Amino acid sequence: MNPIEYERMYRVEDSHWWYAGMREIASAFLPNTITADTILDAGCGTGRNLALLGQKSTPTPTVIGIDYSALALQFAQQRQARKLANATVLELPFATATFDLVTSFEVLYHAAVADDVAALREFHRVLKPNGYLLVRLPAHHWLSSHHDRAVHTARRYNRPELRAKLQAAGFKVQRLSYANVALFPLAVIKRLTEPVMPASANDSDLEIKSQWINHLMQRILSAESRLLHQIDCPIYGLSVIALAQK
Question: How many domains does the chain have?
Fold first, then answer.
């Protein structure tokens, strides 16, 4: 990822509609019945999700974050995250059957992950028997944009493709859905107009350009998260999210 994107991410993760809304959607996919004493966030980035994961169980679980980028981990440390490791998802520095829950948000799509199924097998290895994996990824190859180039996207996913890869790694898929569904038409229009209305060099999908639009979009995703507590979306969305079990 371009270094400036980490700085932007760190600056807006608390308030940007996409980050705030997708945290709610991730929470919707984690049943309250899951007890997780040990949690790994594989590809923790600047660390905002570590605090969320620390609230998922009682008593407070041990949450560890790993990331390939030393710069990302520096930002995570500024969030007071302490249990961090500089590592790749292709070679996790943990013993077999260490964690109750592994999460991985927008990581396996990256050009630095040469083999996404191998990474899924690593997640499977470090999970305890019956442990859970929550994984979220960008959806639909044809939606690739200038932002994908900025964050070094190598691949996007659809539901059948993600299901097949999870099963190839040894997982049983419990839930599988598209997410960020309501805003999908707007994103399609934006992607289709990029060739004739290219973004400037300083433009970024992570910038908050209007507070009221930011608030509106966050409300839309919040409403969608409540629906995803109950149902999966099988058709279209900007992301695809899966809950799988070892």
Answer: 1
